[in-house]
Amino acid sequence: MTYNQDEYIKQHNHAAQIANTLRHSRYFLVSILIICLYIFAIYQVYFTHQSFYFSIWFIFTEVFVSLCWMISTVYFKPGQYSLQIAHRWLQFQCFSVGTLIASGIFLIFYYLPSNNENFQPIQALTLSALLLIVTQTFGLTYLTQKLNYFCLAFLPSIVPYLVAQFFFFDETNHLFNLSINFGLIVILMCAMTSYRIHRRVSTLYAKNNLLVENAEQQVKWTDELCQQLQDEVNKSRDIEMQLQLGNQLLEQKVKERTFDIETMNKDLENQQENLVLAHEIAGLRPWDWNVKERRISVTNHKHEKSLRSSKDHQIQLQHVIHPDDVMHFKTEMTRHLRGLTDRYEATYRIQNSNGKWNWVHDIGRVITRDPNNKKPLRMVGIRRDIHQERTSQERLKLAASVLQQAAEGIFILNEELRYIDVNPFYEQLTGFSHEQIIGKHLFDITANYKSAQRSTHYSIIKQVLKMGEYDGELHEKFLSGKELTLWMHINAITDEQNRVTHYIGIVSDLTERKLQEQRLSYLENYDTLTDLPNRFYYNYQLHQYLVSQQDSIKQLAVIRLNIDRFRPLNEYLSNNGGDELLRQVAQRLRLTNAEALFVAHLNGDDFAIVYEMSHIRPSVQEHCERLTKAFSLPFNIFGQDHVITLSIGVAFYPEHGRQLDYLNNCAEQALSEAKNLGGNTIRYYSNENTALLEQGIFLERDLRKAIQNNELVVYYQPKINFRNKDIYGFEALVRWNHPEKGLIPPGLFIPLAEQTSLISDIGRIVLQKTAKQIRLWNNLGYNNICVSVNIVAQQIRRGQLLNDLDQAIDDNQIDGSSLELEITESSLIENSDSVRNLLDEIKKRKINISLDDFGTGYSSLSYLADFPIDILKIDRSFVSKIGENKQQAIVSAMIAMGKAMGMTVVAEGIETEQQMQYLQDLDCDIAQGYLFSKPLPQEEATIFLENNISAPTYTYLI
Ligand code: C2E
Ligand code: MG
Ligand code: MG
């Protein structure tokens, strides 16, 4: 601090010295100007002599001093200068002035006396002394602020005197010298003293300044402190006021609270009463256990309080609590008393006065504990009878699980018919999640685009709101995309005042059942292969046309169609190909019969069309021709083109009959005729026709009767051995001996019988009759007669054949080798394994197997090797064409092949000698045909035998 203070004083003194000297130097300079002017003027006035150097000195001095004055005044304004520069400037100024004065003294003292005779040395001494003394005096006055400045002016100015004293010692006035030296020393000492005084004053001034500054600082701090004090006082006052306000508020609040507490106390008292009532109603029984005093206050079922010892209470409890629940009760209580649980809670059964177990829920809490050892002192609790609640809960759970598990959609609606709950099955049905359905209106989740749908919904809602229930079937499309047929049952739920609170809906999904029904109906009425109505539906529909709409429909044509030679083509194409062909035929029929009432697929390759005749439609003939034309285009089956032709039979309503059966038979008859004509033709039923229908025979019905009435007879067509013209045997051919209509050929009823079970019956009858006949012939001695019986695919398929054969053989005691079965190629196609097994079984009975109508089917020749076939029967169609080159070649190839395979070859339908000769030449084995005999009734056949076999012994060809 002292150092700082000293430094401050030093700096202050230095600055004060410079500042004061700057200010005083201006007076000093002015003094120098005046003294120089005075001396120059005296010299000029007294000595009227011009001295060049002296004038130069004078002018230079005056100019220089004036410049110095101006610089000091203008440049060094207070507070605007650097101390360093000012210090240097003052040093320079003092030294220069001292030097100028020295040079003036030199000129006056040495030069002027030598230059001016009038100017005496004493005068020179006086003037120079004057200049020196005045200068020193002014210096002493103005430059002693800093000794340095004074010395810089003083020392150069005395140089001329000192020089003169040393160098002109003799010439100078010694007294003067001594005086002036003394004077100069005095001046110097005065200067030093003055300097010290100045410095001390300056120091004092500086110290004073410091003190003043300190004092001012102290005053400032004091002011600030006073201000802070004042602020604090103000704050204290504010706080005091706030405190007072707070106090007032607090008092107010305390008053309010007191009032509130009083009100609450009153409320509490009321509530206490309410609580007691509530306890009473809710079946709550509060208890209060003073653990310390071992007393417990309990409320009984009549809500009367009683006080008893806790020990008694426990003993009583253990007696009434269900043995299974005692442990649970004790554990929970102990855990809570030990402070392990927040509250005690136990559900257990208690035996009531009539011995029944009641569920109770006991809940309590220790409200006071010993602060030292935490032992319970007081515990309160409530026991609640939850028997009813628990039973209801269980029932509710059961109901909820029924809702969840139900395989019916169940929903609950509020009184506005908005969903409030649905079961998972309903979500599944609608395709919406629970969240998506809830809140929606009953039909908000279904599509309501169609007005019919909207009106259905509207009527349902109306009925539900009016009647409180709805029960009905509806077809709904949900917005989720699901489309269902539903049975919906909605019932209103009412409260005690009979107000509707909810609606409950049960929805059953009938979609699958409906589809099933449709499927069944489809299967019943439609042919799955061709998608056309089947025979059943055809008959039904035709019957409808004939019966119900007799008035509206005037004329009908029943058109029956059959694909020519379908069987061989089917065999050739194999099953899939055959099916594909039938599909395409059905499709073409559909397209070409847009104008027809009905197109049906009756069976196999049988189709039917019901066509209404009117002047606005093409005639039946035109229509049928159009059909034939449409069928002239080939069918592409698996990449191969096949051209097929149709046989068409037509019958007309009402001309040919007014009844379904009759009409059908007429059309069938016409079709048979078309077939017999070789196919690819249209035949119209004619009344002159001798066919069955004309005779009023309804095939199926009458055939059954015929079987029952034993109207079927067997004719036998002889087979002749080519080699020796002996009788080889017969072919058994069935005929229907109609009591009224006479003999009906098999071609008219076998095809129909094939489609029904009748064929089995016919087959059995023929077998029996044939076997019986063989027995007769055997009895007559014709032991080697072999009779062939025709078997169709149906008989093989039905699985009765072996039984029938065994029965025929056994019943008539004949040898299996006297029987032969004629089967067609088509019988071998289906299910070849089972057919092979059957044929093997037949072979085991020594019965020969003959392949009938050989060459008419597209038979794969591999059958011949695969199946145990003994005889090849060349079809009549080949034999009849003997004479034509190519056909002959086929016949000879067939015979050659049969023989090469070790088979017996039979040619049927031989009518001419030429045919017989040709076949004989080819080494054919057996001949059959009208050339030898037509099929004969049994008596005639026996006569034929008698006539043609000389002795009843026969040599087998096979
Ligand atoms: P199928 O087995 O090819 O029988 C030969 C048919 O040709 C017989 O006609 C016969 O009378 C006839 N026929 C024989 N030789 C000649 C001839 O020289 N010229 C001409 N024009 N015809 C000749 P039918 O009796 O009318 O039998 C026709 C078809 O009925 C049989 O052809 C056979 O497939 C079937 N059939 C006959 N009886 C039965 C039977 O008891 N059961 C089965 N499932 N079908 C039978
Ligand atoms: Mg035959
Ligand atoms: Mg035949």
Automatic annotation (TrEMBL):
Residues 395-468 form the PAS domain. It comes from the Bacteria. SMART domains: EAL, GGDEF, PAC, PAS. It is an enzyme of class 3 (hydrolase). SUPFAM superfamilies: EAL domain-like (SSF141868), Nucleotide cyclase (SSF55073), PYP-like sensor domain (PAS domain) (SSF55785). Coiled coil: none annotated. The chain crosses the membrane at residues 27-46, 52-76, 88-112, 124-143, 150-169. Its EC number is 3.1.4.52. The keyword Cell wall biogenesis/degradation does not apply. This is cyclic-guanylate-specific phosphodiesterase. It comes from Acinetobacter gandensis.
